[in-house]
Write a structure and sequence with these properties.
alpha/beta, seven-stranded mixed β-sheet, 9 helices, 21 strands, 20% strand, globular, binds flavin-adenine dinucleotide
Length: 405
């Protein structure tokens, strides 16, 4: 590896590679420093049967927009990883594999980055180290009985890899629902500890909900449209691309036999405690669907289209246990799918807000030469997905080029 470079991009996922693509077009000298391999997060932090939740047509990576035979399908994980490898090869992305950056500091006219082989000097730095960084577990997790097998969502691979017995999945956004469904389908007794999540049917009026989200402006809404900064921590809309895409949310899971329980509240000995708030959580999701519906209504008016029919369900009211005895329930495993928090502790610059998100405008921070990519709602709702990351990368790359001239 060279000892100095104009731009160092930290992270070789979609955010880092998209930035690299635009810098390559602009003939800017740069390197992508990747702790593992290209698409490391997709390779090592997803379960075996994972498929994209967003349809293939929404893969809009620069230089690699999806144009395959199945635009309405949902790429399985192995195909997605191959897609990333082919994309990086297609523009000869200057990737340094197995190169974690452990720290970097400002120097005259740039930065010094610490990598395993020593120090790399760069004039500008783009931090693109992921949208889902540190797994979050709710308070009380440490009270669980020690003999329960506990894993994080990113450690889950398949039902066979778990000890036999019932499973508690804590956290119910896209990942929690998909994992609960897979475990239930494999014959396990499953308890799903439910939080406040948005949901929708997979198709609305015959069109995929992501198509509506893209066309209505829902995907491109900005940070300013959120009710609070903390809304960036709320999980994605409950849905799945599994089996060609189908409805997956509290009502389908309950109807299929998954045991819904409320928020996890802690444990005492073999007893686990849950709030009596499933109804409130489902009401919250119903309200978010009505928010989404407003976008669909506006889209229909703007495009002269009839509003689709929608079978609005009534309030969801079931009785759920607030206490579970591990032995009586035959519970052997707990899977934490309770969200993520930003984790930039190794970036020693005062550019973070109270929640740990970088304070930036279009990726630029108050520190000259320091940029971020792939941050939730960095510019838009779509900043962290395959649909929108390219747009952000183009803007960040342009800023980098302009700052040099
Ligand atoms: C379960 C799940 C399902 C998702 N499904 C979809 C979907 O269907 N459609 C969609 O569009 N999006 C989806 N996303 C969202 C998004 O596409 C992914 O989170 C994506 O991986 C984000 O890309 P990224 O480049 O920002 O981060 P990452 O892919 O996480 O890449 C960051 C890279 O940085 C590297 N890195 C980290 N720290 C360092 C360091 N200090 N030095 C060097 N390298 C470092 C990591 O090894 C990693 O390769 C999903 C996310 C999750 C978690």
């Amino acid at each position: 590896m060279k000892s100095s470079v104009d731009v160092a991009i930290i992270g070789g996922g979609q955010a880092g590679l998209a930035t690299s693509w635009y810098l390559t077009q602009a003939k800017v000298d740069h390197v992508v420093l990747e702790a593992g391999r290209v698409a490391e997060t997709w390779r090592t932090r997803h379960w075996d049967s994972f498929c994209l939740v967003t349809p293939n047509w929404s893969v809009k990576l620069p230089g690699a927009e999806y144009d395959g035979p199945d635009p309405d399908g949902f790429m399985p994980l192995s195909e997605l990883i191959d897609y990333f490898k082919a994309w990086a090869d297609s523009f000869d992305a200057p990737i340094e594999d197995s190169t974690p950056v452990t720290s970097f500091e400002a120097t005259d006219g740039g930065f010094h980055l610490t990598v395993p082989s020593g120090t790399l000097k760069a004039r500008q730095v783009v931090v693109a180290t992921g949208a889902y960084q540190r797994a979050h577990r709710p308070a009380g997790w440490e009270q669980l009985p020690r003999d329960l097998h506990q894993i994080l969502a990113e450690e889950y691979r398949n039902p066979e890899a778990l000890p036999p017995g019932a499973v508690l999945v804590v956290g119910s956004a896209q990942t929690g629902c998909q994992v609960a469904e897979e475990l239930h389908d494999s014959g396990r007794t499953v308890y799903l500890s439910c939080g406040r999540c948005a949901w929708t049917t997979r198709r609305i009026g015959g069109r995929d909900f992501v198509r509506w989200a893209a066309e209505s402006g829902f995907l491109t809404r900005s940070f300013q449209t959120l009710p609070s900064p903390a809304s960036r921590l709320i999980g994605n809309i409950q849905s799945t691309g599994g089996r060609g895409g189908h409805d997956l949310h509290y009502r389908t899971l309950h109807a299929g036999g998954v045991n819904l329980v409320g928020h996890f509240k802690g444990a005492n000995g073999s007893k686990l405690f849950f709030a009596d708030d499933v109804a409130a959580s489902v009401d919250f999701g119903d309200a978010r669907l009505r928010d989404f519906w407003k976008y669909i209504e506006a889209c229909c008016i703007a495009t002269n289209r009839n509003l689709p029919d929608f079978d609005w369900p009534g309030p969801f009211r079931i009785t759920t246990p607030t206490e579970l005895d591990v032995h009586e329930a035959g519970l052997r495993t707990v899977i934490w799918t309770s969200g993520y928090r930003p984790d930039y502790k190794w970036v020693k610059f005062p550019v973070f807000d109270d929640l740990g998100f970088p304070v930036q405008t279009d990726g630029r921070t108050a520190v000259p030469g320091l940029y971020f990519m792939g941050v939730h709602f960095m510019r838009k709702n779509s900043s962290t997905i395959l649909y929108g990351v390219g747009e952000d990368a183009e803007i960040v790359a342009r800023h980098i080029v302009e700052a040099r001239s």
